Amino acid sequence: MTVGNLIDSCGFEPLNVASPDREISGAYSGDLLSWVMGRASEDNAWITIMSNINVIAVATLVDVSCVIFAEGVTPDEETRKVAKEKSVNLIVSPFNAYETAVKISGYINE
Question: Which helix (H) or strand (E) holds 69?
Answer without folding.
Answer: strand 66-69
